[in-house]
Amino acid sequence: MVNNHVDDHQHPHQTAGQRDGVPSEYEIMSRAMQELLIDQGVMTADEVRATMEAFESDYPNRGAKVIARAWTDPAFKKFLLRDGKAAVASMGIDLETDQLVAVENTPEIHNVIVCTLCSCYPRHLLGQPPTWYKSDNYRKRVVVEPRPVLAEFGTQLSDDVTLRVHDSNADMRYVVIPMRPEGTQGWSEAQLEEIITRDAMVGVTLPTVLE
Question: What average pLDDT does range 163-180 have in this prediction?
Answer without folding.
Answer: 95
